[in-house]
Amino acid sequence: MVLAYLVAAGMSKIGKREEGSRELINEAFAEIEPLIDPKEIEAVYVGVQSETYEHQIMYGTLAAEVLGLLPKEAYRVEACAAAGALAFHNAVMAVKSGLVDVALAVGVEKMSAKSTEEVTDALMAASDLVDQLSGVTIPAHYAMIARRYMYQYGATEEDMCKVAVKNHKHALDNPKAHFRKQITVEECLNSRPIATPLKLLDSAPISDGAAVAVVASERVARKYTDTPIKILASTVATDTLSVSQREDMTWPYAVWEAAQRAYRQAKVEPSHIQVAEVHDAFTINEILMYEALGFSKRGSGYMLIREGQTYIGGKIAVNPSGGLKARGHPIGATGLAQIYELYLQLTGRAGSRNTGAELGLAVNEGGVNSAVVVHILKV
Amino acid sequence: MVLAYLVAAGMSKIGKREEGSRELINEAFAEIEPLIDPKEIEAVYVGVQSETYEHQIMYGTLAAEVLGLLPKEAYRVEACAAAGALAFHNAVMAVKSGLVDVALAVGVEKMSAKSTEEVTDALMAASDLVDQLSGVTIPAHYAMIARRYMYQYGATEEDMCKVAVKNHKHALDNPKAHFRKQITVEECLNSRPIATPLKLLDSAPISDGAAVAVVASERVARKYTDTPIKILASTVATDTLSVSQREDMTWPYAVWEAAQRAYRQAKVEPSHIQVAEVHDAFTINEILMYEALGFSKRGSGYMLIREGQTYIGGKIAVNPSGGLKARGHPIGATGLAQIYELYLQLTGRAGSRNTGAELGLAVNEGGVNSAVVVHILKV
């Protein structure tokens, strides 16, 4: 099997941006342009969630056009918020297939021109139709899970807020983050309810942004960099569309499944992972992921954050970028924003938030953990 | 490089259906269930155009759920009407990557519950925003191309109608076709205008339907069939989102580019192809494709249909299934409906419309030929 390497990554500034998709893609790509001759890119895979935000579906062609890559292979891959990591997974598959030596993954979303109601509606299309008809929004799903988790294991609203506090702290050192502002547990507890027990400061924002990553075969990887990053694992797993069909709603089975497969592919253990970017769309989900990724035992993930073990410098640095909560969450770009952070961390380019890690993991999900993508990277 | 084989394919009846996506996927899969143990499928790629028709985006998870394939890898791939062939391309890439031995491609669309206006709007998202704001619908784009083609090369409205007459004739022998009704050139010429010079009977219908195909590695292909079909080529090419940016709007450059790459991959010439399924969303496009695929010289494609050479039994059988025009055009399913027809033709399962062909080609496109997928298959 052909080995695949991450050789370059770029990201736009994340936040409420004036620019549209085309400009955001260009901004992310500009960061890697000195490293990669666009002519050498043979295929482009674009992760983007919704056709409704910009009334556009041909994002593969659009990205190829913007980057001067026509008439090359280009199309869109999608599973709601997992789209960005799926674009990366597709690029890995393309390189491993031997069909191309260099593939580009692009993630992008331009959301802020729509109202919160329109975004909420677009995101509900990632859940089962029965749940949609019942009026259960995505935040409401996570709220039910949070409530059940608190009941089942004794976690508190403070524990969840501590995830947000950590991620805002990390983002202080990330010049491209949506929010660079320290918050306190009290501010989080007192922020307005979104879907009780989840509050505004438990929730990732609506963001605009783009991120890109270049995957190259072993044959050509060293042409681009002296420190190509090995893609040790790239896995995708799925779970029921409706949370109601799961045995235990506090257990994100697809995260566990994708992670188990990834650990086997990479031949590493959870305890070896030094840095992780995880999908904290709501604070409760970061805690669930600690457990399903094997960073803690089932039912005790909240102890990790209560003890501060997932700060940079702790047992394992989780979301050094600031995560979805503070770096921001432009849906289709998020998975690649995670890969971008690992790229910076593993090559020592993360500046004041450098962890010095050599082995990192990213987990990106769509729906309510109903499509999950895990990557393990090693420098 | 791992060789990839098409080992099974299935399709629902196409037309205005009462059923939703879930039932249509099940119906298509039921045709291959006797051949394939679902447990052996390792990944699922779903081609579907729009989130608006059923307010759903998680079609990968949905298909895996419907087919009992959770928690396996599953996601959506898309470039509007090219989605079906892209799902197949993705399955080919997955098998060639060595990551999986058996991959399932699913194409589905449930359109008929929406009004023609809603469908027209959803399809316009496949064009450039400037064209959308100008009010140029997809049919209007093809109408401009048709008008220019007639002016440039001397083709007539009769020539275009002859494509529709042929495809309706072929569909008479296809029990799963949307329309099984012979039409005449006069009926076509007298049908109501859609975007002049294109009329109702120049245009593919709004259809519901699903199709599936199984791609297997050389290692396991013969477990499923004694006559695995070699996938000789699988290519994707792109062209400007806006037709206005092309040098010659009558030349579908991405079709030519994808075909040229496919002929090189397959090591065959256009004259070797015995059967082809091409993307006749409007009759003019079948004529353009004759030229860009190299079945005729540039500017003389209309002579092929004028002389009746693309009927079954002619120089090359084009759209023996009835094509998009008469088999029907459930957007995300169309590319796999084409693969399904080649499967039937190359394995001699096409009944009274059998061509006896051993080498076939399919071309599926999205936008206005701005994303194009070509496959070449050989028994």
TrEMBL record, chains A, B:
Transmembrane segments: none annotated. Residues 6-218 form the Thiolase N-terminal domain. GO terms for biological process: isoprenoid biosynthetic process. GO terms for molecular function: acyltransferase activity, transferring groups other than amino-acyl groups. Gene3D superfamilies: 3.40.47.10. InterPro entries: Thiolase (IPR002155), Thiolase-like (IPR016039), Thiolase_C_2 (IPR055140), Thiolase_N (IPR020616). Keywords: Acyltransferase, Isoprene biosynthesis, Transferase. The keyword Iron does not apply. Residues 237-378 form the Thiolase C-terminal domain. It holds the Pfam family Thiolase_N. This is Acetyl-CoA acyltransferase.
